[in-house]
Design brief:
Layout lengths: L1 H16 L6 H12 L6 H21 L16 H25 L3 H18 L14 H11 L9 H11 L4 H24 L9 H32 L2 H17 L2
Helix pairs in contact: 1-2, 1-3, 1-9, 3-8, 3-9, 4-6, 4-8, 5-7, 5-10, 6-7, 7-8
Length: 259
Amino acid sequence: MNDLLQIIVLSIIQGITEFLPISSSAHLIIVPAIFNWNNQGILLDVSMHFGSLLAVIIFYIKNISEFRNSKTLDHYIDTKKVLIGSLPVLIFGFLFHDYITENLRTINVIALLTIVVALLFLFTETLKKGEKKISNITNLDIFLIGIMQATALVPGTSRSAIIILTAIILGYNKKSSIKIALILSFPVIFAAMLYELYSIKVYMLDMHLLINISFSVFISFLVSYIVIINFLKFIDKIGFYPFMVYRLVLGVCLLVFFT
């Protein structure tokens, strides 16, 4: 029962945090530490991320008109641009995965980056609001966003946050910045899943574990989809301030109580 409760809680947290600028990987480290839970393991992490990936795919299919030119049906971010924006994080992930896993998944690192990214975000909110839309995106812009996305390999940074932040600095409006983050989540989440699955002995799965996996996929998918829809719907009204205030409070609490 405790295992199931942990899976439900972490799947909800994964669904909430994957696409909000508050770092899902950090929360999947912090929450088990707070409740003194055993590590949930690679397989369940992969399952929860798979649920989030399914949510992005369904959202993309249902809202495809927002991502392509209605006259030519050309996608604003085509395969070439996806590759340009994804290669940096895939290369850095391949080269530094073990180092990051062994040395940077600490509360100190998470707390520091949680605060730093929040301060950077708050600074960008003082800048002139961007007017560029996803239809304006260039190869150079997607490459610069991809370079910055690589920094999100370190827990606490947040892949969504750093992509949105970079896009806003480059002059894109909030909704387009979020859409860019959603599209670039495809290859990153998928590649991470493949990498982690490589180390899993699938033949050792039993019925209990399969049930846990099913729960984690379904809950993460459902929550992720709800978050994506509402994040895009209300971002112009609420802005990024609430998320950055949360990051600042979280970062300070981590430094005070866990270091």
